[in-house]
Amino acid sequence: MRIKIQQFLFGKSHSWSVVGQNFARAFLKAGHDVDLISTDGFEDKYCSTEFKEHIKQVAIGKYDLQLSYTAPHNWPAYLNPNLGGFKAAIWNYEYNGKNLLPGFAKYYNATDQVLPSSNFTKEVFSNMKIPENKMMVVPHGINLKDFENKEKYKLKTNKDKKILLNIAQPHRRKAIHLALESFGQAFNKDDDVCLVAKILIANKSEQVFNVDWWKLYGDFERKFPNHAEVEVVTEFIPEIATLYNACDINFSATYAECWHFT
Questions:
Q1: What are all long-range contacts of 44-47, with beta carbons under 8 Å and residues at least 24 apart?
Q2: Tell me, which fold does domain 2-141 have in CATH?
Q3: Distance of alpha carbon 131 from alpha carbon 173, whole angstroms
Q4: Each residue of 201-225: pLDDT tens digit?
Q5: Which of 13, 18, 40, 59 could lock onto 8 through a cystine, CB 3.0 to 4.6 A?
Q6: CA dist., res. 253 & res. 174, Å (int)
Q7: 118-142: per-residue pLDDT in tens?
Q8: Where are the domains of the chain?
Q9: pLDDT (tens digit, 9 = 90+) per residue, 64-122?
């Protein structure tokens, strides 16, 4: 088949990019012809060599499948009926509520099938009045090759136990303040433990739903002056499995996640 994947892919580290790249990897392994159109630009560090010959600036010819993991208002642009083929869209939303996203449901008309990755998200979409026959749950999997890497990211801490708080984007729903509060209540400076906070430091003005990590961390330090060690990791890690390998516990305090495999 000729397949086009158009979405965030190579401009930055993003969960949608990871999913899109792994779909592409699976399609290529199965022998399909794949065109990759990155809507967030291109940075070499986010693109492995296996994909570079498949990157296109624009769609070329007709396709058997068009796939995109993006917000619904992008579906009409990224799933072009003039390019032919089956049009499938992926999106997830972690909060339930019938009127949460007014106006978004109508974009299902741009697809042949919406692919929520969990029954929870499917229920959200149903509440938004997306028809049952337009949806099929396709759970996200894992790339087993990531677990072949036994290397450990070099942390600065010398503490025996490391607790990973993988925040990534500092979104309000990550409940960062609650995670810090929990750690502050559980441990003090005499405990042989370190909280490893992996976070993308972003300007709050970039997104209305971002929070200021350093403000929250300052509040935490004032409330818990004898807190246990915290190591903040802000750099891009090409092989994120190495960070998981370096820690003992994966900790999450988010209000909701629809496909976070804790």
A1: 45/236, 45/238, 46/9, 46/10, 46/11, 46/12, 46/13, 46/17, 47/9, 47/10
A2: Rossmann fold (3.40.50)
A3: 27
A4: 865 555 677 899 999 999 999 999 9
A5: 40
A6: 7
A7: 888 888 888 888 999 999 999 888 7
A8: 2-141, 148-250
A9: 999 999 999 999 999 999 999 999 999 887 665 554 566 788 999 999 999 998 888 88
